[in-house]
Specification:
Elements lengths: L1 H19 L5 E5 L10 E3 L3 E5 L3 E5 L5 E7 L19 E6 L10 E7 L7 E10 L14 E6 L15 E6 L13 E5 L2 E2 L25 H6 L24 E9 L2 E6 L2 E7 L9 E7 L10 E11 L4 H23 L1
Helix pairs in contact: 1-3
Length: 339
C-alpha cells in the first residue's frame, strides 16, 4: 500500500506541476486598432522617432514612411483582412521605402517596441508584401524586403551596412539573384550576410544565380509559396512568380531560444541561426528594406498586422511529465510482479 500511495502522490504532483505552468505569457501585442481615426501616426522623418511610449522608429532616409493605423482593408487595393485579426476592421502598420521624393537610395525602416523581452520568446505577425508587375522581372523598384529580428540594439537601420542582432529578410517579387548579398531570402548577424552555402537555410546549401538556397526559384520556396494573382484594384493584372511572397497574407514566426533563432513563414522553416548576437539585447523589431537605389513606380510596400511577442516556457515541463509517468508505471509494475 505504501508503494501505491507513492504512485498516487507522484501522479498528483506531476499534474500539479503541469497545471501550475499556465499558458505562455503574452509579453506584447498590437493589432494597430489603437491608431484608428485621428490617432493614426505617420512617420516620415529621417533618423529616430518615438511613437508614443510604444515604439521607436528608425528611418535611414527622409523618403521613407511608416503609417501606424493604415486602413488596408478600405484602401481600394483588394487587400483582405489579415488571418489573425479578431475584428472586422483592417488596420495595420504600413512601411514604404523610397516611395516619396524624386530620388531613391538604399534605405530601410525599423519599428521596434520599446518594451524588452528577457528570456526565450516568440515573435509572430501577419505580413503582406505588395508589389507591382508585370512579371517576370517586376516593375521599376519592385524588389523590396520585409525584415524582422531579435537582439536589436534600438538604433541601427537593419540593412546591409547598419545592423544588429540576428535578423531576416524576404522579398515580395523574387527579383534578386541567388548570388546577390541581398537575395530573396536571407539571414544576417548584424551586417554579416549568411551565405547560401552556410547551412543556416532549410532549403539547403545550393549556390548560383538561379535556384540557390536563398533564391525564390529553389524548389523549397516554389513548393511552399505558389505565385499569387494581383488583387482586384491593382494593375497591371498579373501573377507573381512561384517562390515569392507577394499578394498574400503570410504568418511569420521568429523564435529566440537561448542564442538560437529560427525563422518560419507559414509554418515552413526558412533559417536557423545560432549566435550570441541573439541575446545581445532583449529587444525585437519589424521593418522594411529597399536594397537598391531605386524609386518605385507604384504600390510597393509592406504591411504588418497582429504583432505579438509571447514567452516560450521552459521545455522541462513535458519531460517531467514523461519521466514521472514512466517512473510511476515502473513502480506499479514492480509491485504487481512482486505480488
Amino acid at each position: 500500500m505504501k508503494v501505491r500511495r507513492l504512485c498516487v502522490f507522484s501522479a498528483l504532483a506531476i499534474v500539479s506541476c503541469i497545471s501550475s505552468r499556465a499558458s505562455a505569457a503574452i509579453l506584447f501585442t498590437d493589432d494597430y486598432e489603437g491608431f484608428s481615426g485621428g490617432n493614426q501616426v505617420t512617420v516620415t522623418a529621417n533618423g529616430s522617432t518615438a511613437v508614443g511610449s510604444t515604439y521607436t522608429v528608425q528611418s535611414s532616409a527622409a523618403n521613407n514612411k511608416a503609417v501606424f493605423g493604415y486602413d488596408y482593408l478600405n484602401a481600394g487595393l483588394g487587400i483582405p483582412l489579415a488571418p489573425h485579426s479578431t475584428g472586422a476592421t483592417g488596420l495595420g502598420l504600413r512601411f514604404d521605402a523610397n516611395n516619396t521624393g524624386t530620388t531613391g537610395a538604399i534605405s530601410s525602416l525599423v519599428a521596434s517596441p520599446t518594451a524588452t523581452f528577457p528570456g526565450d520568446y516568440e515573435v509572430t505577425f501577419d505580413g503582406w508584401w505588395n508589389t507591382i508587375g508585370p512579371f517576370p522581372g517586376g516593375g521599376t523598384g519592385s524588389s523590396e524586403d520585409m525584415t524582422a529580428g531579435v537582439g536589436y540594439n534600438g538604433s541601427t537601420f537593419q540593412n546591409a551596412s547598419s545592423g544588429s542582432g540576428v535578423w531576416f529578410a524576404a522579398s515580395g517579387d523574387g527579383g534578386f539573384s541567388g548570388t546577390s548579398t541581398t537575395p530573396d531570402y536571407f539571414a544576417r548577424i548584424g551586417t554579416t550576410f549568411q551565405a547560401p552555402g552556410s547551412g543556416v537555410y532549410q532549403a539547403g546549401t545550393q549556390t548560383g544565380a538561379t535556384g540557390s538556397s536563398v533564391d525564390n526559384a529553389h524548389p523549397y520556396y516554389t513548393n511552399a509559396f505558389p505565385g499569387q494573382a494581383s488583387p482586384t484594384g491593382q494593375s497591371p493584372s498579373t501573377t507573381g512568380p512561384a517562390g515569392a511572397l507577394a499578394w498574400k497574407w503570410h504568418s511569420v514566426k521568429i523564435d529566440r531560444i537561448g542564442n538560437t533563432v529560427t525563422w518560419y513563414i507559414d509554418s515552413n522553416l526558412i533559417a536557423t541561426v545560432t549566435d550570441a548576437s541573439a541575446t545581445a539585447t532583449d529587444r525585437a523589431f519589424v521593418g522594411y528594406f529597399d536594397p537598391t537605389a531605386s524609386q518605385d513606380a507604384g504600390n510597393v510596400f509592406g504591411i504588418i498586422d497582429n504583432l505579438q511577442v509571447v514567452a516560450i516556457p521552459e521545455p522541462a515541463t513535458g519531460m517531467l511529465f514523461l519521466d514521472g509517468t514512466a517512473a510511476a508505471s515502473i513502480v506499479h509494475r514492480r509491485r504487481r510482479y512482486a505480488a
